Structures are given as structure tokens and as C-alpha cells.
Amino acid sequence: LEYVIKALVDHPEDVKINRVVDEMGVLLTLSVHQEDMGKVIGRSGATAKAIRTVLRVVGMKNDARVNLKIEEPEGSERGQQGMSDSAPSEPYVRDTTVDDVIKDLKG
To answer: What residue range is the signal peptide (predicted)?
Structure first.
């Protein structure tokens, strides 16, 4: 995932991926530079949908659910809407690669 995203964006040094693993599956949270959001999401969300589809296929192949969350960059007007003070509890978070996720899913 990291390799693909870095190839799409103009600011690859700002690409960050965090992983949360729990009983529901794997949640990958993607953070990119504000100027790169359009490239990652694509027209009408087509690029983001394609990335999510690939991740779902990888998850199905490894009997796990894999979801992608794309975080709004700081300073984004859209990101300020609907913000709440409570943060979700995260049982397990670390920077990772897709290969790490596949290894973890295979056990």
C-alpha cells in the first residue's frame, strides 16, 4: 500500500500508514499531504475505491477483513466538520507495510 500511495503523490515523504488490528480485522489509516488528497481519492472517489478493493481482496485471500481510512489533513475545512472530542480506543497501532499485514494475517 505504501509503495502504491507514494507513487501517486507529489509529497511521498508525508505518506504515513498506521495499522490497528482487533477482532473486527485490520484498519489501515492513511495520512497524506493536503495537496495530495485529490490524487489519493481520485475523481468521484475512484482511486480510493480501487485501493480499497485491492486491500479487500488481499484480506479475503488471508481470511481477514481489511479496511482503509483516509484521514483529512490538518487545516482542511472538510476535516473540521463533525470532529468530536472523544478519541476511539486503539488496542494495537504501529507503522506497517502490506507485507507485514499479510504475515500477521497468516499467523
So the answer is: none
80 Cβ neighbours under 8 A, 6+ residues apart: none
pLDDT at 97 (0 to 100): 62
DSSP string, the chain: -HHHHHHH-S-GGG-EEEEEEETTEEEEEEE--GGGHHHHH-GGGHHHHHHHHHHHHHHHHTTS-EEEEEPPPTT-HHHHTT--SPPPP-S-EEE--HHHHHHHHH-
pTM confidence score: 0.66
Question: Which CATH superfamily, name and number, covers 2-75+89-106?
Answer: K homology (KH) domain (3.30.300.20)
